[in-house]
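Next comes a single protein record:
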Amino acid sequence: MYNDLFTIGPFTIHGYGLMMAIGVLSAIFMTEYNAKKKGIYTEQIFDMAVWAILGGLVISKINYWVTIIPDIIKDPSILLHVMDGWVLYGGVLGGILAAWLYCRKKGMPFAKLADCAVPGVALAQGFGRIGCFLAGCCYGIPHEGFPHIIFTHSDYAPNNVALFPSQLVSSGLDFLHFAILMTVLKKSKKDGTVILTYLMCYSIGRFLIEFVRGDLERGSVGILSTSQFISVFVFLAALGAILYRKFKKAKTETEE
């Protein structure tokens, strides 16, 4: 795959950047669309999305730096290469945190708006993984069977080696995730259900896809990759919240 799609004068359009831009715009569009459908649209949604994106970028970068602390100690100049290295998990959690802080400051219903936003987040991740495929980053383990992909001009993945197409599988799962979340949003009546579903599904999918990822420089915690380690706690937290809500509902119905 070629990350440089085409050049117009001094400007080069990169596949990764283009897919990221499409992803961000699609996330904002879907958030506004869902909010209108739910009758809670506000012009502040765009501002919330911007803050969520900024928060996601900051935490994503910090998360990446944490995974390469030994390298940073050896060469602090790595910190100056701000465009290199991101951890998607950090971006997801950072975006949610930033959106929560914004809603809290503006007095906006976070759970209700988050439910409208997370389907778009899954959609954006699907486009983002296509960008990873074009660039060759987030590549899979060596794999000769079906399916596999061979990069020949990648700056990140090993070239001329059959690899599992982890980016495309991740992208497909993200688009499926988007469809599931839109269905849950349509049928759910309790605020917060969609975002908890998102966190559970994403943590499971991310934990599993890590087994076929080959870019080991992302860091590890014991036998688990950094993302798998985070996934365990995200899944348990989301599951705990769902069980607590069910227990609280059952208790309320019993008291009535």
Q: What stands out?
A: The chain has a mean pLDDT of 88.
